[in-house]
Every structure is written in structure tokens, then in C-alpha cells.
Design brief:
single chain, alpha+beta, Muramoyl-pentapeptide Carboxypeptidase, domain 2, two-stranded antiparallel ribbon, 6 helices, 8 strands, globular, binds zinc ion
Amino acid sequence: MQRIQLSKNFYLDEFTRSQVAARHGINMRVAENGVIHHNLRRLCVTVLQPLRDALGPVHITSGYRPPKLNRLIGGSSNSQHQFGQAADIIVSGQTPLDVALWIKYNIKDFDQLIHEFGRWVHVSVSGLNSDPRRQQLTAVKIPKLTMIRKPRTVYVPGLLSVDEALGRAA
Ligand SMILES: [Zn+2]
């Protein structure tokens, strides 16, 4: 099958690969030239390709998520992954915090940029009719010391190390 190119170094199949989707038989097809296809292309052209040109190959750990897949993996109900506006990424040889900071200082039109648990970067572009917010957050897990409560995720403003974010969240 012919790969569908989104920008110089990015292809659609990188955004539709999902073990969970495969295991649950979720259809990951993206209609050619539909809204999701356009959003993914915009994400590549505006953010991911410039990042790739500067720092090297970018690995997409989660791209497009149909609502059913988003629910299964516990994504937030209004997740931009559902519209092809967001990707979770890592770059070999770079810490997620360094990748997030590179995007902050070099890309103008991102919508949301999250340093997630010190493990990966979530980055999105805004919807077609809204302006990019340039929102920057660090996600950390606050352990719960009781038997009933589960650890909860807290989003701290700014791009911080996990320790710094935990300090501010406490
Ligand atoms: Zn994400």
C-alpha cells in the first residue's frame, strides 16, 4: 500500500499505529482530505517537521485516536488526539523536557505543549477556527497515601522538571 505523506519526513501511518486499537479491532482509517487528515498535516508542517529538521527523527508514541481508542487508554474526553490535532512524541538522544523547551522557543503556532511525567511530550495545534493558545504545562502524578484513592494527575503551569513540578503541586 502506498504511504500517505503528511510532510517531508512524516507519513500518516505513523499517527494511526496503535497496539490497543489493533487488539480491540478499532478502525483507524483516516478519510483522505478529511478534517483529521488536514489537522495531522498541519501538525506536521507547523510543529513536527521543523522539530525533526533541527533535532533528528521524531517518534510518534500516540497520534490520532478515534473516541473509542481515546476512552480505552484513558485520554481526557475532549482530547485533541481525537481530531488529529495532537501527538505524543519522543526524540532519541533528547530528554522530553529539552524537546518541549525547543518547541516553546522555536515554534510560534502550537496550541498546547505538555511535558508529561518526564516521559514524553504532548503537542497540539489549534482547531481551524481558533487561535493557538501556546499553553505550557507539566503533568505529574501525585501519589496518594490512602488505600482507596488512586494517584492523581496534576497539571502544573510551565515547562518544568518532574521534581520542580511536584514541588509546586504539593
Ligand atoms: Zn497526548
